[in-house]
Amino acid sequence: MIDTKTAPYAALLLRVSLGILFLAHLSLKVFVFTVPGFVGFMGSLGLPPFVAYVTMALELIGGLMLITGFYARWAALPLAALMLGTIVSVHGHNGWMFANKGGGWEFPAFWLVALLVVALLGDGACAIRRARTA
């Protein structure tokens, strides 16, 4: 049974936590790896440079949308696709455990599931612009 009194706050907590994680992940790319370094890394995977910029834009815009609750349930879907792409192109061949060399796909898979939960659950409490529901 879903507790309808607390479920919006659970969605808020999940939404904001995921948004902060995306901004932290973006910060790692920008301030530690640097933008040229991240573009080079994506190139080393055989991906075109624009994929790096799309990734960073999705993390920034999607992260902010999750934190603020601006159409958060719809923002979660492209971010879930991004996590699936991360599993396929970066972490999938490193095995399950994220502690493996190069990071396995355990952590991105959890992010993917959590983002799908946001998409299914809804925007939650304190959303500045809720997505319409059927």
From TrEMBL:
The chain crosses the membrane at residues 12-38, 50-72, 79-97, 109-128. It is found in: Cell membrane. It comes from the Bacteria. It is a multi-pass membrane protein. The keyword Nuclease does not apply. The keyword Plastid does not apply. One of its GO terms (cellular component) is plasma membrane. This is LysR family transcriptional regulator. It comes from Pandoraea eparura. Belongs to the DoxX family. Keywords: Cell membrane, Membrane, Transmembrane, Transmembrane helix.
